[in-house]
Amino acid sequence: MKKLFAPILMLVLLVFVACAPVAPVAPNVSTPAPAAATAAASTEAACEPVKIVYGAQPLGANYTQAFYDTLYADFEAENPCIKIEQLLPASAGFDSILAYFKSLIAAGEFPDSLTCGADCGALGRAGLLVPFEITDAVKQIKGYEQSMQGGLLYTLPSQFQPVGLVFYNKNQYAQAGITELPKTLDEMDAVLAKLKAAGFAPIVTSGDWVPSIFLDMLSATVIGKNPHFLSDIKAGKVKYAEGDLLKAFQHYETWVKNGYLIDGAAGLTYDQLEPAFFAERGASYPMGIWFTASAEKEKANLKFEVGVYLLPSLEGNYVYGARTAPCGVSSLSEHRKEAVTFCEYLSLGKGHAAIAKADGMFSNLQNPPDLGFSGLQLDLEKQLATATITWQFSAGLGDEAVVSGIGAVLGEAGQAVLQGKSALEALTMLDDYVAAKLQTP
After folding, report:
1. Distance between CA 333 and CA 123 in Å, rounded?
2. What is the homologous superfamily of the domain 165-322+392-439 according to CATH?
3. pTM summary value
4. Chain region(s) in the chain for CATH 3.40.190.10
5. Do 416 and 396 touch, CB atoms closer than 8 A?
6. How far is 10 from 4, CA to CA, in rounded Å?
7. Mean pLDDT over all residues of the chain?
8. Lowest mean pLDDT among 36-50, 133-147, 187-201
């Protein structure tokens, strides 16, 4: 019965959200009074708590269940009339999260609020999120305008998560005679060659979704010069498989062909990478800033010091930047007010700092809280101060979004190079996908 009913329900829901205008919701951030605990207790006795379902990020090394449990307990102590029920996606990876949330629509179980990463844009375009009103509180988020779609803001992007970073084993780099860190991709080629000649696996990486991150990182070469590169692709003005992006991705092709990746990379998954790097199976680990949190936790157990530098580009000092963990409110929710309150907590309240600390992120607020940075994070903060930061990522942000589903194809393109395809062939996959999507009514 449920399987027969699900397609009809999904059609009804999508027609509803497409046809019914969704009024913006306004954040209402407040600071609890000193007697908040006493007031909370009396409030709880006077109200029937509303349960909202929160679609959380997948569990991992930084976002553990213990972390979430503490987060929910703190929120519920401040808001005793709201109770959080957690809903975890089936697997990691932004595209699989989107697919998972869409399956919940068919089952009538879409969450009230959710953290949806790059998929928030697609959900907003589908009419499944409520736009936020641009209040003074929202204006505290730096660059929030870049997340807007058609003048509407569907998420609160209050954390900043740089992606174009290379973490490295200082001992192995020193033993390979590397005295200067690379800034250009040509210099990076030379560094990797030295590492291999010294008997080290130059790069720790894997299959899974990870190959897409190289395209994310290398696209900084192009997006740093043309912030509208992704929307230009959608408009047919440029292609993935040409110009500087092709030149940059051909370096990745060379790394694969020259055997610079860790043994069996194509068959590994993301969850195996941190242990491999910590076990000194490879000298360089290209990844995002979230690794700094893991590195700090593991620091006392390591036999080497971890360093970090910005992933080189064709010409020099661009770094690929992205926002992460934005919270959105479902247009299908019967408890929008409460869902907005929880999003406020995660994005503008105490939860903002908790999430940033847990995943090694920077605050994106005008007046950021003290996140207690140390070690790698302080080093990165200094390097980022002199770098050019781009805000677009694989799927595009706000009005710069390319087409839905492009994130998954980025992963497939990266995997194709791991399996022997050329950079030109891989990037042509992206161009073909965009062309096909734009022709689909």
Report:
1. 14
2. Periplasmic binding protein-like II (3.40.190.10)
3. 0.75
4. 2-159+324-372, 165-322+392-439
5. no
6. 11
7. 83
8. 36-50
